[in-house]
Each structure stands twice: as structure tokens, then as C-alpha cells.
């Protein structure tokens, strides 16, 4: 028997495991050092141009989301802050596997992607019309989608490929069962449910202080229940529509809204505490599984209504960019491996498809002020930040600054927690620099000081003074030499305190 060829990366590095991502523990999250995963996803995002790699065929409309029930006990997101509050939305429907010219009546999951234009930024939910998916590990995503596309030799759809993959991937059985059931072909986009599919987290804020104890995280799943009722197509009806009107669902959505028959969905959530998740019989972050409604009942949040058609398909639908990385304060992520990878993969796909400044396109532009340090690149609109600094931290006044009030509580992952740890806390950044200075001869020390003076003298005096503090903390002589070169007089009584090797 012929031995199989050795699987490698594009750099020729042998691959030991092409089934499982590198994760922090069995329930994730995925680690950035998994170069094989990153290469597969990044390359996958660049395999089609210019249409979307998946969800290429779609239709969309604008509308509003109206809060009908108070869930502030779970989330501090301002769009949920009061009953009756309205938020503008864009909802894009799609088939998953087909190209832009494919038929709407295919037996295929339907994309259900929502952009909420909130006062705290854009929040995207990039879900489907099913609560689950075919795979649970993102390392298999490019492979799976390849089976749904065209055979590399015949350029035709390949039933061998899809069933070969499914038969070798038992985790797909739940979604396959849905896909080939009566629910597999929705009659229209209006007559189907939508789901966030992944497990997300909601974060509340029970006080005005920054105390972590006042912030609580719960796990959450999002559901959008159609108020038009469920309608589906049989295989025979689907075949007839594909020949007679391949754009039937696109027509239906546009015409219904144009006639004032606005489609609506009831948005609900399921909520699971961290304690419940730890005791759950299976992994609550597994995208191939649901949470039982009997254990975690639906909680109504509001009504989503579509009431305005796009004016220009390319500008408002084709250029619309959705990513699960777009979350607002009060909504966040989970250890769901597929979600973790999509947080990277989706915006990467949009940068490839639309450019590095895709958020500046009108359909993607937030309704709230945007303040950051990103500059340049293709299609940098406006004044490109003007004369303000393009780096941070900086000393300029009235520039964007971080705000600890928006910090999330740590995400506990067994013996470790995902958090933003202060890399300066507990670190001595001065002793080794001082030791290096003390290894130099007096002549070398003098040349070092003069080289620094030649550059630092061109900076503002407030910057000079701040930097001198660092030199003195490393070594008093080091600081004195530079200060003398700058013509700055230092009070000798301050030197012992300044010289202490402590972080600032």
C-alpha cells in the first residue's frame, strides 16, 4: 500500500495534527501561536475575489430593534437600557455555499447577520437559521467549506466530497439532520428563525465603581423567532423554483417591505451561569450542540423589524461587513473555539475583500463618534486623523484615552483566567539598564550620554524631565550625565528617592 503524502504547511513544516486546534485546556480558547490554524484561516479568506468566500449570495434590509423586556440584570449594553428603546439595524440573509449567481432555493443553511448601530458602536451577530453548525473546531472550517464548493477537476458540486467529509466527521450529524429535514429549505427569508448560534457572554454592571465584584458574566445564546410563521419548501418545490426564479427569496423580501408588509422577529436569549456551565453534561461552548429550552428557557428581549429596502445593492449590501469581533460593552465572547477563530477570521476577510478601512464605508460606519490611532491605508476617508498623534500612549491633550470603566471581568478557564494582565506590575525595568551602564568605561558612559542628549534635546522639556526620571532610577550617574548635557539642574536632595529601582 502506498504511504500517504506528508501534510505540511505552506512553508513545508510537517503537520502532526490537522483535526484539533491548539487550545488552553480542552474547552479552549484557541491560542494565537497555532500558526497552522492561522495560516489555514488567513489563506482561506483569500481564496475568492471579490465575492465573499461564503455567504456570497444574499439580500438585506434596514430596520429597527425595539426593547420589550428588561434584561439589564444580565447586560449593561445601552441598547437594552430601557423598554421601548429603538436601535437601527441592518439584517443580511444569505445562502452559505453557493456563489453570487446561485439559487435562493438551495438546500443549504441560511445566513442571518445583523448589524446593530448602537450609541456605543456597532454590534454584529453573524449567525444562521440553525442554532448549531457542522463542526466544532475551526481548524476544519476551510476543509468543510471546500466540500460545499466545486470539485477542483470538474468544477461541479461534489456529493462525494460532502458525504466523505461528513462521514469522517460525526460531529456534523446534528446539523446534517436539520439540513435534510423539512426545515432544510426555508420558503423565504421571512419565514425562518435566526440564531447567534455561538455561545456569547453578557456582562452586567450593578454599580458605579470599578469593583470587579459588581460585574457579573453569564453565558448567552441569541434566538430570533420569526413572527411570520415557518414555511419551507419540498425538494420538488425547490427544484421548480431554482429553474423558474432563482432569486425568489430576494424578490420576496424586497417586495414585502416595498408593500409595507414589514417582517418581524422576536429576539430572545438563553442564559447560563458560570456555575451551571461548569456542571453542564457536555461542553456548553460546543457549536454542534444546543442548550435544552426546558433547562434554559427563552427570555424575550425585543422585536426586530425590517422596514426599509436598500437604495443601492452594492453600496449597502455587497459592501456591508459583519464580524463577531464587533461587540459593545455588556456583550462579549466565550471559549467557543469556532467563535474564537471567527473573531480573527471575519475581520481579516473584510480587510481582504474591502480594504483595511472597511469600517469607514457608509454602511459599516458607526453612528457614534469614532476615535482611534489607525491611519493611512487604501480608502482612508476624511482627514485621516489630521495632525493628531498616530500612537499611544502620548502626552497630547484631548486625544483618545483608554477607560477602565469598560473593562470586562476575567474569563475563568479552569486554573487560569483570560484577562489583560499589567505587564509592568511587579517588573523592574531599571536594574539591568543600570547594570549595563555600570559595565561601561567612563568614556563609553560619556559618549552614551552625549548621544542621548543629541536626540533628547530636540524633544519638549516636559518629555525630557519624564525621561530623566528613568535614567536616574537606573543609575544616578547615568541621570546626572544626561541632565548636565541638557543643561537641566536637578536638586541633589531628590536623587536618593529618584534612584530607587521601582516601576512607575
Automatic annotation (TrEMBL):
The keyword Heme applies. CDD domains: catalase_clade_3 (cd08156). Keywords: Heme, Hydrogen peroxide, Iron, Metal-binding, Oxidoreductase, Peroxidase. GO terms for molecular function: catalase activity; heme binding; metal ion binding. Heme binds at residue 346. PROSITE patterns: CATALASE_2, CATALASE_3. The active site is at residues 55, 128. One of its GO terms (cellular component) is cytoplasm. Residues 386-402 have a biased composition (Polar residues). Its cofactor is heme. GO terms for biological process: hydrogen peroxide catabolic process; response to hydrogen peroxide. Residues 1-25, 384-403 are annotated as: Disordered. It comes from the Bacteria. Residues 8-400 form the Catalase core domain. Belongs to the catalase family. This is Catalase. The lineage of its organism: Bacteria, Bacillati, Cyanobacteriota, Cyanophyceae, Nostocales.
